[in-house]
What does this fold into?
Amino acid sequence: MKNLLKSSLPHLAAIGIFAVVMFVYFLPAFQGYRLVQSDLKTAQGAAQEAKFYEETTGDFTAWTNSMFSGMPAFQISNYTDFDGNLAGYVVRFWNLLIPQPAGIWLMYALSFYVLLLALKIRQPLAVVGSLAFAFSSYFIIILEVGHITKALAVSYVPFLFAGFVWLLDKKYVRGLWVMALAFAVELYSNHVQITYYFGILLLIFGIAYAFKAGKEHAWIHLSKVAGLSVLAAIIGIMCNFSALYNTYEYSKETTRSQSELTIAPEGSSASQNKTTGLDKDYITAWSYGIQESFTLIVPNAKGGATGMIGDQKALDKADPQFRTPLSQQNHYWGDQSFTEGPVYLGAGIALLFVVALFFVEGYLKWTFFVGFVLSLALSWGKNFMPLTDFFIDHVPGYNKFRAVTIIMVVLEFCAPLLAVLFVNELIAKREDWLAKKNWLLYSGGGVLGLLLLFYVIPDSLFDFFNGQEADALNKQAQDNPEMAATIQQFIENLKTVRIAIFKEDVIRSIFFAGATFALIYFYLTKGFKAIYLIVALGLITTLDLFTVNRRYLNGDKQNGRFVQWEEKKENQFPFLPTAFDEEIYRLETSGLAINGNANTLFVPAAELQKRTEQNLQSRKERRLARGILEPMSDAEQAAVKYGTLNLHSNYRVLNLSVSTFNDASTSYFHKSLGGYHGAKLKRYQELIDFYFAGSIQPNVVNMLNAKYIVTQQGVQFNGQALGNAWFVKEVQWVKDANEEILALKALDPKSKVIVDNRFKAVLGQYAPDSSATISQVSYAPNKLVYRSNCSQPQVAVFSEIYSPGWSVTIDGKPAEAFRCDYVLRGLSVPAGEHSIEFVYRPSTIETGNRGSMAGSVMLILVTLVGLWTERKKLVSGN
It folds into this structure.
């Protein structure tokens, strides 16, 4: 026991260091505050309907009508019953243990620490490397904006590689156990793009080791590593089978799948831009600039984050007459549309990475060097299309992901790893490497020399305007010849300010890179104690990254309030209803706004008020049960008020006062035609591209039941909206998707419906009946009930999105719906009075849950064997 305690002390000390740094950096999180995360607010807006439905009814829904007129909720929220996955409980326990996002940062550090120990890095040096990884700027920025699933996925990756390293080291049981658990939590984080990119790196790692093992004829060992790696992956996949299977099935209908269209909105051919997944321009919309890559060593190589210039020291370099307009210009001048900040490794880490290429030998160097170069080149996207085209066209799965800049997480993993490997070997081989000190001077001096050139001749090496910005300024000069000289002066002054911003960061990079270089050079030549080298490198690296990251995430206050943090109650309920929302509520409950065949409120206003009060009381009781005594905030009461309305009505809102299809705030209170999601249904996206990207087509708005249209001027009641369901008099048959989407332009959706020829067998006989009626009588996100009455068979159109997984019954007997009007549902309704029910419960949910349960059992067994084996080793002292 004493030996166990003694051997644990260094690791406990490491955890203590991580905890102290975490506490200092994320102090507001431990004072009860939450980060104001823009993307998290968007996610909360998207998930609100599903969340409120579960809280109110105790049921779950795998569909939500809150965004894009309706879509599966698999990728929107966790409010689905994927309960068979054991990994979910592990993740939730950690999240409860430490306030977020501090807990995610600590996982960054701990997981990388475990990987470095698996690679046999000296324990103090492993602490330094872990801090360098955890403070890589992009990993902090994604916490600041609320890319939580992305951050979680990154945080578990080092555990995955640690398990693989132990397999290579013939620690088969430990490797399998850790790798299986890592796969399980990695996939549970639900950011498949991150997992995919690191899967490429793991494959490179495996290939590099296979060459080494092949030379040594270690075929049996190699077979064991391959087999156990596959088994670990299978266990992880099976644990997450429910989510993965449902996502896979859902993906067939999303923008990640191949389109049936071969035309662009203007009618031209779209074949050059189409892939079997996302369109090429969508994949590469966010591409890192080639010059922008120097942010890896100079954070402000392109100005940092998007925002107005507020650097007074830099503005002082400009002509006083231009300082005010210059202060309103963009601080970022890179190639991306906008950015929250750069990918910065740390100047010292970048220098160590370059030096490592000349000193470190073996398959590990080539693994992480190739991973670094490949991820950097792929991050350039549209700026390096030959490689991007090759991956899009030939590498399976690559065309399913957008924003190629995300792949830079791989180089942020590779650079500190290789830097630490170098320092570890420097300490071990100092005497042997003395003869190679000139190589150290060449490589390290080369990095410092490059930085010096950046400072001396910045305008010869860098552009200080992006292409779009330069074109706009030049056009202003051409359109206003009398102002051309003044505009040119403004351009020159803007360039002066930006060069000043750039050079200030070059100086700090020279300092930190120079200090790092001096340390390793004098250690190599003088040979002082290794611990001094490690501690000094740790202080330099942490100070460098810590101060840069505070530009993007900090605990600064303004007027006594945190700028980037808010109280927990504000964070949980991020939106207050606007005057527009209140006007919609008033109209909906007044009984005045009637369209289609009926009012869209399914209970009397008095009954709605009663149910709202019941839901408020129920929430108060749940709060008291959790020990929450303070009264509900206005935002929480509003969430209940509008959530109750949402469950007793079915109308839609087209909000033109915001970026309609890049904003989910409307979805928080209403069912919206818009929203924000990276994997919306492909046909709906195509509808947006054709009929909302330019001038909005009124008949399309009406068929989507946009009962309320919000503009900057106020709320407009749309009396032409067709309601929840209606009968049509005529069917227009089309041969393919091209014809179908183009036919919408001239369609009168109230009297005619467009149907693809493939549904001819589904649609039955029909005859005109002017007295026929159909209306919705109740609503739940996953269950819609209608009543119909007609003397002749009719064709009904429902203002609901067609998607697999919906089943329909007429008087309890199964029926078959068909797709119509490109995105909507249609149904042949027999004569007479009938009850029609649409229910969303894909069979994939039950199948997936059974698979997840089986995977969880496998993970438990592997974990028990792993713990038993580790215990035996501790007892025996091996």
About this structure: The mean pLDDT is 91. The two ends are 14 Å apart (CA to CA). The chain is about 55% helix and 10% strand. The CA atoms of residues 54 and 215 lie 58 Å apart.
